[in-house]
Amino acid sequence: MAHLSYFGILLWFSVLEQFTPVPEEAALLSLGYICAHGKLNVFVTGTVSLTGLLIADSVLFFISRKGAAFISRLFLKANPNLIQKLRSDFASHTARTIIISALLPKVRFMSPIVAASSGIPFTRFISVNGAVTAIYVVFYIIAGMFFYDQIGSLSFHLKAWRHLIFAVLIALITIVFFIGRSRSKKMGNQE
Q1: What is the pLDDT of residue 5?
Q2: How far apart are the first and last CA of the chain?
Q3: Residue 91 belongs to what domain range?
Q4: Number of domains in the chain
Q5: What is the pLDDT of residue 135?
Q6: What is the DSSP letter of 20?
Q7: Given 14, 29, 47, 109, which is the most exposed site by the fewest CB atoms within 10 A?
Q8: Is residue 1 situated within a structural domain?
């Protein structure tokens, strides 16, 4: 990611990230780490990442509103109890449901889809989701920067190993999220 331009980061979060098993949390942590390393400007990186995530959420929202076949296939793969619970919560507590679903890794992808199919107005969805996503992006980028600083303070001798340690940590986070998603899909299929 250090070699990507800001346009590459925008492309990653708005399009490519949706089709890879790499969780966006791991990508945001990586960007924070890279920013702390001095390769990217943290403010521009955060803004571009946020913009990409909001573009992806908006596209999913509008595709869902049209009732595309792609969306019906997603609903078939998702846990029907989760979808029904989200629809119910969107109807009774719209803002609270948008906030909670924007912060939960497994639910975040489904949030714009269920919100649109539940008839939530786009302006309401994007305003609440945008504010929460901004907090989410800032948190993970700062966490990545903090990790870089903590590894740097361990020892000057670890400098050569710092990047490897971070890469292993990100790989472990990705594996944990991937296993969690696989288990939730299996549980959804069993029900």
Answers
A1: 83
A2: 39
A3: 6-190
A4: 1
A5: 93
A6: S
A7: 47
A8: no
**Could you write out the DSSP letters of every residue in 98-146?**
HHHHHH-HHHHTTHHHHHHHTT--HHHHHHHHHHHHHHHHHHHHHHHHH
Which DSSP string corresponds to 168-184?
HHHHHHHHHHHHHHHHH
Per the listing, tokens 């989200």 go with 86
> Which among 83, 91, 88, 90 has a CA at the least distance from the CA of 110?
83
Of 28-37, 50-59, 73-82, 163-172, the range with the highest mean pLDDT is 50-59
Within-domain flag for 144: yes
Instruction: Choose among 20, 53, 25, 61: nearest CA to 134.
Output: 53
Separation between Cα atoms, residue 156 and residue 120, nearest integer Å: 53
Tell me, yes or no, whether 158 lies in a domain: yes
Rg for the chain (alpha carbons), in Å? 18
Q: Which of 70, 99, 72, 97 is nearest to 86 (CA)?
A: 97
Q: What single DSSP character describes residue 191?
A: -
What three-state secondary structure class fits 18?
Answer: helix
Q: How many CB atoms lie within 10 A of CB 117?
A: 19
Mean pLDDT of 122-128: 91
Residue at 124: amino acid letter = R
* pTM score of the predicted model: 0.74
Cβ of 18: how many Cβ atoms within 10 Å? 13
pLDDT at 138: 94
Q: Which amino acid is at 9?
A: I
In a domain, 104, yes or no: yes
